[in-house]
Amino acid sequence: MKSIKINSIKLFALAFTASSFMFFSCDTPKKNTTENNEISEVIETEKDNLEVEKEIAEGDVERMNMKEGEVITRSYKIKEQTPIVYNLDANGIAGFDDWKDFTVVNYELAEIRKSNYVTTSQRIKNMNYRIANLGNTIPSWLKTEEVMEDVADIQKEYLELIKESNAPEKEVKENLEELSEKFDDLKEELDETVAEYVKINESAIEEFNEEFKKGKIEAAIEEYNEEIKKLDKIIEKKK
């Protein structure tokens, strides 16, 4: 994943926002409760995510030194959405709490790589249900057009592998390598999708802080909500 830069200006902006909100709340007790709740929610979201962003920035270095099998779990909160929870290993995204089929296939292919793509036909068949179901169980927030294309490519490659499961070992090995490469393409696209979610959320917070510091409370909330709407644009709508 692309490294996320954390700087002192942003940290100051958060501190200023939080303190300004407390001051504002004390001086205007009659302010609309809904609006106050929205402001509080944005601030709490930013506080939580600052810690995660620090972990992500530090994690880019940490991942370079990770041992085989080590996993980092990250949870990133987006306003009014279920937190994004995913696992990272030395090779990138290793799994999602809400996408078990991906997690299992990633594990199986990692094990097959360890054996230099020499494996039993039974192990290959064990991935059948999981790979066939990838497109059905993917979380809605990951359903971009590019991700779904990569899923389709994996399923196509897997069917080819099954079709030629009785081929010579060398050919089976080559087909496994092709499947593994397609899965790596998917992981790369997932990395970019998660990074885009984080980027949009950061932009929304920055817009909120900018207007809030000027005392434009309604404008701050409006700017934040407008930026957050961009999350919908990276999703392929499904009816």
User: If you compute it from the alpha carbons, what radius of gyration comes out, rounded to the nearest whole angstrom?
Assistant: 22 Å
Beta-strand portion reads: 5-15%
Order of helices and strands: HHEEEHHHHHHHH
SS field, number of helical segments: 10
What's the total count of β strands? Answer: 3
**Large-scale geometry:** elongated
Walk across the major sheet and give the strand order: 1-2-3
> Strand count, sense and closure of the main sheet?
3 strands, antiparallel
Polypeptide structure, described:
The protein has helices at 8-27, 33-64, 100-114, 121-126, 128-132, 134-137, 145-163, 169-213, 217-228, 230-233, and strands at residues 72-76, 84-89, 92-96. The two termini are 30 Å apart. It is built from ten helices and three strands. Helix 1 (8-27) runs antiparallel to helix 2 and helix 1 (8-27) crosses helix 8. Mean pLDDT is 76; it is low at 1-31. With 239 residues, it is mostly helical. The protein has a three-stranded antiparallel beta sheet. 68% of the residues lie in helices and 7% in strands.
Give the helix/strand layout.
Blueprint: H1 8-27, H2 33-64, E1 72-76, E2 84-89, E3 92-96, H3 100-114, H4 121-126, H5 128-132, H6 134-137, H7 145-163, H8 169-213, H9 217-228, H10 230-233
Helix pairs in contact: 1-2, 1-8, 2-9, 3-8, 7-8, 8-9
